[in-house]
# Entry
Amino acid sequence: MENIYTFKNNKKLRYGYTTGSCAAAASKAAAIMLFRKCEIRKISIMTPKGIPLDLEVHDIKIEEDYVSCAIQKDSGDDPDVTDGAFVYSKVCKISKPEIEIDGGIGVGRVTKPGLEQPIGNAAINRVPREMIKHEIEEICSEFDYYGGIRVEISIPKGVELAKRTFNPRLGIEGGISVLGTSGIVEPMSEEALVESIKIEMRMLKAWGCEHMLVTLGNYGENFTSKELSVNIQNGIKCSNFIGETIDYAVELELKSLMFIGHIGKLVKVAGGIMNTHSRNADSRMEIMAASALRAGISVKGAGKILDCITTDEAIAILIEEKIQRETMDLLAEKIQFYMKKRAYDRLEIEVIVFSNEYGLLSKTRRADELLAKIDAAQIRKDR
# Structure
């Protein structure tokens, strides 16, 4: 993978490969050695994306009745906690003429509904399972073997790595997931982040949640739990992906979303900006100044806001001009307007806006009612 790159934000970034590719490659190598009874140090597979991988085989153990080996995960320039981890496959023959795939140490088990695999299964997703099965079938055919094969995937560091992932929150216990739809890790992949949000939303829907709490990040979670005293256990964090979160809520046919976010992010939504990352747009001061003008600020005051660097600076000017409340209420209305427009008015959306320095800034008309409904439902579920 050293020679495959992409360019994002003018940076040259190297591709990597998924835990699913590691599991498939280790399984293929182990199966070959099971039949040959001799070591191989390199293995090649073709990924679903059409990119071939030539990988080094590690920690080979050839026993009378099984073979195990490992492939080291390489995430390229993507910030992935599994980078460098060894993914093991233990392969043995079984009498039943089928390919069994299970997880060992460090591979999580599904304990809650709403995930891709059923409760009780190892958290090895569909595409990696298909990749493993395909490689095993190819090797069995090559060696004219028509019996069964059992494959056990393990990731010894997976138990510790899982603490740095969403897995415990998602209902995957005991380790990490074996993932990947293309077999390839694209560096800084927004698609992967959006998919993780969708997984959480699917899980909550499977639990019966039709009214969801959405925070934009850690600030929102802290404000919700500490300042509003609301249980955030069943909430989701959408990061910058507000539009995609609303889209998927509509697809899931949810009834409502309760957004709680810092003014520095949510103010952009008041201008119709649905991905709040700074590289996409930064019209915070223009939007705040326009709302302040509608609320009655002086032209001089609006000019001061346009010169601000942070939203807290702008709020200080609003306080000085004695129009903070009016301006924040106008912004909250606009935020709600654009969110509901994105949802084609197919679900209720309420909004709470806050600042770390100034606390609660504004909330839409039925925000308290929806928040109480969400909090009560979570309390019942916790019991």
User: Anything to note?
Assistant: The two ends are 49 Å apart (CA to CA). Residues 379-383 have pLDDT under 50 and may be disordered. The chain has 13 helices and 20 strands.
